[in-house]
Structures are given as structure tokens and as C-alpha cells.
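Bug #77: duplicate submission created two jobs. Keeping one. Sequence:
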Amino acid sequence: MSVSSLGHPLVGTASADKTARVWGIDSGKCLISYTGHGGSVNSISFHPSQDIALTASGDGTAHVWKATALPEALGASSVAGAATGGGGSSEESAAESSEDDGGRAREANAGAVSNRVNVIKYPIVSLSGISFKRDTQCRA
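Kept job's structure:
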């Protein structure tokens, strides 16, 4: 687990399901899901002054990725760098309203905005050849 206060207070979690997630402390909601690792994610750490995170995985890689939440998920009208550029890709898209539905799709989508999760699949940088060795000898 790692905590970031850059812009909005966030908590990052690493998981055996091969994902790292970023949660809004204020909302308690998942804002970002990073799915780029092939093995369990063992650790996450935030950069102290940029919207990037570093994760290490049991697959022997460490990934640096853009940890920026969608501005709608944060409840903000704009957040610097909140677009999904730079190593990220959003899987979410807004439902479009047609003229004959009377705007109902737009109204239904307005409630879903706060439930959006920015899914990031690809790192900015991938480091490989990392090995985690355990000391199996008992020392007195």
C-alpha cells in the first residue's frame, strides 16, 4: 500500500489478481486500475511530485505508469494531466444521447460518471530481469 496526496489524497494497493488499484481516500472509490502485469503485483509506490506510480510484480518486472484519475471520478471539473495520455488507456466511454430519447441516456450516464474507473493497460516504462530471492538459511 502507498499513499499519495498529490492533488487529491489517494491510496494505492497491490493485489494477487495481477492488478494495482488507486483509491480516492475522500470517496472510498476505485479510481484507477492498472492491469499491465502478468503476475501478482507485490508493491506500489507513488512518485512524490508527479502523477506516476511504480509497481513490482511476481512476473519479474517493475512498471512505471501514469497514475491519473479521470477528473469526473474525482468530482473536479479539471485536473492537470487528467487525460489518459502517456502510457494510459481509458476503457470507459460516455453513452451518447440521441434526439429521440428525450435526453434519458444523458441523465442515466450522469449518475454513472462517479463510478468510472480509468483502466490502464500499458506502462510508460517496463523494467525486466528483476528477481526476488529469499534467504532460506536460518542464522543465529
